[in-house]
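User: My collaborator sent over this chain with a note saying "see what the structure looks like." That's all I know about it. Can you take a look?
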Amino acid sequence: MDKNKIIGLKKMFDNSCNNIEEGKINIEFWYARDLQKLLGYERWENFEAAIKRAMESCEMTGVTVIDHFREVTKMIKTAKTAKRDIKDYMITRYACYLIAQNGDPRKEEIALAQSYFAIQTRKQELIEERIDYIERAEAREKLKESEKRLS
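Assistant: Without extra context I'll predict from the sequence alone. Here is the result:
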């Protein structure tokens, strides 16, 4: 596993992030067509197949698909002054994770993304374990203090 490649992918991933405000909530999202390039897909049709598999995975776990994969239409310029609509998706970090897990692992970028998300998941698990440990230690300390006051 090349740590520098994963760091490079993370930087590109972070740089392609978009933000919108909905009320007081800041929502981060990516456009699928931007992610397509980051994950090494040349053709939209092939990448959209990975997106569809990720959507199925999302649905099978009982998560509302529209909350993470929002279909949008973008206007692009073609030759000279012509324009046309293309299909795209606004996707959340969770959707990015699912796409990486459902992408072609023979692509180096997909393999790196899978490693990146595995590392991030483990970091989160360690943080949660540490928080649980601290909360247990604080609860034990409070219990000790309570017992001292009672006796």
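A starting point for your reply to your collaborator: The mean pLDDT is 85.
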